[in-house]
Amino acid sequence: MRLLRGFGWMVLSLMVSACAGVREKPQFTMGLDASRNTWRLMWPSASDHEIPRYFYVGQLTGENNFIQPKSSEKSLKRAALWFFDLVSGEAPPIVLDRPQAGVVDESGRILVTDIGRGQVFVFDEITPELLTWDKAEGLTSFISPVGIALGPEGQVFVADADLGLVARLDRAGNPLESIGKGQLARPNGVAYDALRKTIYVADTTAHKIKIFDLEGKLLDEIGELGDGPGQFNFPTHIAIRHNRLYVTDTMNARVQVLALDSGTYQGTVGKRGMAIGDFTRPKGVAADGGRNIYVVEAYFDHLLIFNRRGEFLMPIGGVGDAPGQFHLPAGVWVDVRNRVFVADMMNSRVQVFQFLGGDADNDAD
Question: Are 187 and 168 in contact (CB under 8 A)?
Answer without folding.
Answer: no
